[in-house]
Design goal:
The complex is a heterodimer. By secondary structure, chain A is an alpha+beta fold. Chain A has two domains: about 100 residues; about 110 residues, no CATH class. In chain A, about 55% of the residues lie in helices and about 25% in strands. Chain A contains five helices and six strands. In chain A, α4 packs across α5. Chain A is rod-shaped and about 125 Å long. Chain B is α/β, with parallel strands linked by helices. Chain B folds into three domains: about 70 residues; about 130 residues; about 90 residues. In chain B, the strands form four sheets. Chain B has a six-stranded mixed sheet, with helices on one face. In chain B, strands 1-6-7-5 form a four-stranded mixed sheet, sandwiched between helices. The longest helix of chain B is centred in the N-terminal third of the chain and has 54 residues. Classes of the chains: A alpha+beta, B alpha/beta. Chains A and B meet through α3, α4, α5 and β5 of A and α1, β7, α5 and α6 of B.
Chain lengths: ~210, ~375
């Protein structure tokens, strides 16, 4: 109301100054009121600005909080995804070293089965992929101190390396390498017989990300 | 009187509050749902870990799903199967027959073919398998023994899978179900003089009736009806189900007789068993046939190269490996037939020959039988 009154007075500059003069002369009670109006108007503008800044500040804080929570959530999800991938690799490793398709017994791989799988090539990869899922590989090494020689029906048993479902270099993966026993069916060859023998080896199981 | 500034403050305050509140509530809802999904994923991850451990070690266990707050659907139509929950799904690593419940037992069993073992996990809520034999023949009793042998022993866990008889006065009735070892002892008792009658008891929801009789036909009134001729039937279904081994019937027992909007769970598990078994066995047969050929060839080469004596033990092994390889190639060929399950006699013969060939290898010391 006061502001409206003040604006109305500003409608004519001359009329306004006359009124102010009159109020000075007559010692009218309206004179201090007009000063208060001016001060009040400036104070109102400042308060409004303060209020808007405060609101803006609160909104910025809320948005910052939400951005922080989102960032935290996303980073946690990344950590969780990484953990899930490592878990998957570990589960696959445990499953493969006891798998009836590769192993003779728990944690004892059979070199005959591994070589048979190696010879089956991509067929083996798609068949085993439908059982254990796709996008993984396994590399098995016999730790006999010799250079890697891939096992197949020609090189067997003078070989020490098997590679299943390995993609070309450049694909990103997470992997575990664990020690395993490898049973060699033609381990010791005597004139009177052939004996099986256990060797120490390693299996690297990787999951492509 | 209110000043214009005060009016502005009020209107602005209300608008700002509503906007902020709406934003926070929406965000809290999204964040809360995300956290719930994370919690469910953690529960399922723990369950899969437990199932994998059970599969590897053979030690039974149980698992509490009560904090899941939502049913887990075991989608056996996928290969490999997946658990579906909320907006997520999780792949099953090892063969499993699963039914959801607040608390489930999990145990491993194996089908042994000599040259290969098919290991699988059975996980289901507390249940009682009620057998109702209607003849006193070895065939009928053999089916009950096969089914019981393939179901896990839950003596050491809290969530139980127990057994009872119905309509057989010689056994304990449904009010006092037995643990696996007790029931197997009861199955070993003399049954030849026993009398039987059809089970008409009203069974609680977690009991499943398995009638074993030569008179089984389509749409039995309750539970599952197993005919020793190689077919079984499920209440509420018009289908005939062929079985090769007890695991086919176990798939139906775990799936139950009920159906929902997704269909009949027992049908899905039965189809999954066939698919998983066929896939795994064909793959295993191919590997073992190649391995047998490889070893036979290398042994023959050693004999030809005079590194080992002709007529020695390895020379006999070479011949036995050739027999095993031939039998396994026959198994693989039978499994490749599209309708192998309904005409499974040729497969059963090939399996029997392969087992005999493997046993001969073991008897000659060429193979060490698996533990």
């Amino acid at each position: 109301m006061m502001q409206l009154k003040w604006s109305a007075r500003q409608g004519s500059g001359r009329k306004g100054s006359v009124e102010m003069m009159e109020s000075h002369i007559l010692n009218d009670v309206r004179a201090p009121t007009s000063m208060r109006d001016i001060i009040s108007r400036k104070k109102g503008s400042v308060e409004m600005m303060e209020y808007m800044f405060l609101t803006l500040f609160v909104i910025v804080i809320v948005i910052a909080f939400v951005i922080f929570l989102t960032w935290w959530n996303v980073s946690q999800m990344d950590v969780e995804k990484s953990k899930v991938e490592l878990d998957k690799t570990l589960v696959l490793t445990k499953s493969l070293i006891s798998s009836p398709f590769l192993a003779r017994d728990d944690s004892m791989l059979d070199d005959g089965k591994l070589t048979a799988l190696q010879d089956m090539g991509q067929d083996a990869c798609s068949s085993i992929g439908s059982i254990y899922g796709a996008d993984w590989f396994a590399v098995i090494r016999l730790l006999d101190g010799r250079n890697d020689t891939i096992c197949n029906s020609t090189s067997y048993p003078d070989c020490n390396y098997w590679s299943l479902c390995k993609k070309p270099a450049g694909n990103i993966y997470k992997s575990y390498v664990v020690p395993v026993n490898i049973y060699r069916n033609l381990g010791v060859i005597l004139t009177t017989g052939v004996l099986g023998r256990n060797y120490v080896g390693s299996i690297e199981v990787g999951v492509y990300t | 009187m209110l000043s214009l500034f005060q009016v502005f403050k009020m209107v602005f305050g209300v608008i700002a509050s509503v906007v902020i509140l709406y934003f926070l509530v929406t965000y809290a809802g999204v964040y809360g749902t995300g956290q719930q999904d994370v919690q469910r994923s953690l529960i399922m991850k723990n369950f899969r870990q437990l199932a994998d451990d059970v599969w590897l070690t053979g030690n039974p266990s149980d698992f509490d799903f009560s904090k899941m707050n939502e049913e887990v659907y075991f989608d056996a139509r996928q290969s490999p199967p997946v658990f579906r929950f909320g907006n997520s799904n999780m792949q099953v690593t090892n063969p499993m027959f699963f039914r959801y419940g607040d608390s489930v037992f999990a145990g491993r069993s194996q089908l042994d073919f000599g040259w290969w073992k098919f290991s699988f996990v059975v996980a289901a809520p507390e249940m009682v398998v009620v057998f109702s034999p209607l003849q006193n023949t070895e065939q009928v009793w053999g089916i009950m023994r096969d089914i019981t042998a393939l179901l896990p022993d839950t003596t050491a866990v809290n969530t139980k899978l127990r057994y009872a008889f119905c309509g057989y006065p010689g056994g304990r009735d449904i009010s006092s179900p037995m643990e696996k070892f007790e029931f197997q002892r009861a199955l070993g008792l003399n049954y030849e003089t026993a009398t039987f009658y059809s089970c008409s008891a009203q069974l609680p929801s977690n009991y499943i009736l398995v009638t074993v009789s030569v008179g089984c036909s389509q749409s039995p009134s309750a539970g599952i009806c197993v005919n020793p001729d190689g077919l079984f039937y499920i209440a509420g279904s018009d289908r005939e189900y062929a079985y090769m081994d007890g695991l086919d019937i176990i798939a139906a027992i775990i799936g139950g007789t009920g159906s929902d909007m997704r269909g009949r769970a027992s049908d899905d598990l039965y189809a999954y068993k066939q698919a998983a078994f066929r896939e795994s066995m064909k793959f295993a047969a191919d590997i073992m046939a190649n391995r047998a050929q490889l070893l036979a060839g290398k042994l023959a080469a050693l004999i030809t190269g005079r590194r080992i004596e002709y007529g020695s033990e390895p020379a006999m092994c070479a011949g036995n490996y050739i027999l095993l390889s031939n039998a396994l190639q026959q198994v693989s060929a039978e499994l490749a037939q599209p309708d192998y399950y309904n005409n499974n006699q040729a497969l059963l013969v090939a399996l029997s020959q392969s087992k005999a060939a493997y046993d001969a290898l073991a008897a000659n010391g060429c193979e060490v039988p698996k533990s």
